[in-house]
What does this fold into?
Amino acid sequence: MKINVLKIHNFRNYEKATLNFNEHLNIIYGKNGVGKTNLVEAIYALAITKSFRTNNDKNLIKMGEVSTKIEGVVEKNTESNYQVIINEEGKKVKIDNNIISKISDYIANINVVLLEPEEQMIFKSSPQNRRKKLNMEISQLKKDYILYLNNYNKTLKQRNFYLREAYINGNSSQEYLDILTDKLVDLGLKIHTLRKEYLDNINIYINEKYHEIMSSGELEVKYVSDYNNKSKENIIANYQKNYNREVIMGKTLSGIHHDDVIFMLSKKNIAEWGSNGQQKNAIFAYKLAEIAIIKESTNDYPILILDDLFSALDNEKIKNIIKLLNDNIQTFITTTDLNKINKKLLKNADIFQVESNSVKEV
It folds into this structure.
């Protein structure tokens, strides 16, 4: 899978830009703050329809404008034209000029793997952020996943509203609550199954990938969930047991909205016991495992984005990581310093220089 052409209009600090990319390695360089990350953010948004830097789509629109368009020619078996258009009214996506009504039908078409500085903070981040990243990863492979997730969140909101109403009014219909609970559990079990399947597959690859970077330690991911090893009957019984507490607190106290992912290095939580170096290498091993899963699932490699990698790792680690990259993976690297990149790599790469509000191939 490769993106051959990227066109952006009124995106972030760019009024207009058209870029033709190398099928193997593309390096985007320039000073801090000139818009390097904006370009790879556009590639990510073309694939996922969302930014990895903001939850508000409107932040992608150039200041003073009312809409933005990201367009790309993507090659899988054949070339197709993809578009993401964002304006004040919302978001619209197209494939070959045909409007796609469901975002879930669009997202599964372009696979992208991202490694950027914020990923290094995932261990110190909240479970909510870890779930968000997990959701993005799975949605690229399972188009029904977003539908399940959206319906779960709607049902959760309804159930929480009902619990608050029950507390305020002092009475409630147990029958209606049971309907909401049953629906929530059914959707939660579907999401749980897909999350467990995905993380089980991560564990098939992650330790091997970690050993390619580090010579010691056993790395795995642990899926923490209220639904682990539970039947539907067990889960519903737990909700019934906690009903009075939920009414008092006005919210649903258990479910897949509390799920978490913990990285275990030699049976210890890497967030608590691992060094900075071990944590950074664990994240990259996870990304390599993600690439392997996508290749296995789709029979094609994803697009790989390495944003500002050199600020997070030393030169030796970067050399080791780049050696692991497969030539079949189209890769985008942003950097402030070309001297940090191996000269042999530079010879075979397309290089784009970014200055304020503009980009050119050099």
User: Anything to note?
Assistant: The mean pLDDT is 91. The domain at 126-298 is CATH 1.20.1050.90 (Glutathione S-transferase Yfyf (Class Pi); Chain A, domain 2). The CA atoms of residues 210 and 285 lie 5 Å apart.
